[in-house]
């Protein structure tokens, strides 16, 4: 009941305090957690367990965010905390004035890094969702390179009489050497371990030994050259796992899994117990100003760093980090035994304030592990943060995941934008074509990923079935493959596929090469800022508009002959409309050669049925119409059609062209009423 409220790490520290107090009470000197023991024997199993079983897909998808938190965040914490603590030492009185800037920066680099052991101990108990877990845990793993560089850098600078610009530049470059060098060492040992496991089919007993041996050699080799041992262990575990698991037997895989879990649990238990014992046994120098300032500024630096970096990161992330996520990331920045061991490594000759540093470090560790570790579970429940869902992977999920990966890779190829899906696909192709053939023995190197996943699930299901004692009642969901995996029999002969000749294969390749679209060619990415205007685009648009207008005009002429007329106005309305304003008729030029149509106002024919005409009183030019001319009738002249342009799309014909004859015929047949935006008013106003 106590462990459901208090994290296991807190209980172990309490046990260490009790054991240390008991040893000291009987007059003996309690043992102290020495840095050599911690870094050489206790830390590597925990890091190897984390690196070997690292969830690779969420880690790689969030690698940019993790690196920003690990590198930029740790640098910010170290320099912000070191600078403020230097100011506190200058203002804090006679007991702190002798502590210089480099010593405070060294202290800031020690206390600023998030501890992977403490994060693992707390976050695995609260079952936080996978995104937050991989962000905080990934940060705690990768910030080791920054911590190692800053620690050794400020330790060396403390021995210098004067620090030059060249020293600072070399220190900045050493970060890349330490981090990338550690990764390179880990990759080399991981490949060697995978290659060795290819030849262990006849000695299955020692297969797990090679995994532990090469991993530990990677860690020691990196530490030998002052590179990042944690980065080397992670790289070795990530690189060797897929190839080693394909080569070794299932029993060896089970041995590696449970031995690593057991080994890391023992190391974690010893680390927290020794932290409690060392707290009782160590020499302490308590300074209220320094300790309280350290604790306060640690919290302030963590919160500010997470808020600023998340604001920047969210500009580039598709899945944004919500305020709840930011709170959990800031609150989960736990400190642990790495900071204590680094502080214990300090030399008394150059750092006379080492006891005060260790006291402040232990205070921060106890506050983060006890206060933050105990309250993070209720806060996660209170904020309703998404928990981790324990679901078993299925074939259906694997198929859809691979399908989406291929789909996104194809979309990036078509767009010409090469993102991480494209490079992931390139890496998978290279791995399948070259690396697997060298590092995996037998036919397993050619086995598709989906089939390998299916076989793994079948084996797991069969073993669970045997362990549960249900071999006599085999459910229908279990296929016979599971039983064959339990009791392997002689395999039947494989069906021989017909082999193609070289000429036939080359002919098929040639046909595919010439007919399939080349999607792998480099295309220009779409960008609306770099689009170049086509100089001929405007002219083409004008010509298309003219063609369209010409077709519409021709269609309208055809409708005059085929479509029945609209309902005409009554004779009274027609007479009133024409006689209401005789001055509105605009006199036109001489129209002797044009046909003359006399319209009786009382006739049922509506003047609105006549379109595309210019109407004026006959024989008048510029004068109002006389009553005689009004009685005589209206002269209607055919209006010349306007040309759509100067090109050859539509050229107006002569008066004897078929279009003009069609125009004259349509005058005698009332057609449909024109649209308001087309044509002209029947009676134009005088200008």
UniProtKB/TrEMBL annotation:
Top-rank taxon: Eukaryota
Matching NCBIfam families: b_cpa1
Upper lineage: Eukaryota, Metazoa, Chordata, Craniata, Vertebrata
Topological category with respect to the lipid bilayer: Multi-pass membrane protein
PANTHER family, per database record: SODIUM/HYDROGEN EXCHANGER, SODIUM_HYDROGEN EXCHANGER 1
Keyword Hydrolase: no
Gene coding for it: Slc9a1
GO biological process, any: regulation of intracellular pH
Protein name in UniProt: Sodium/hydrogen exchanger
Main localisation: membrane
Extent of Polar residues compositional bias: 652-662
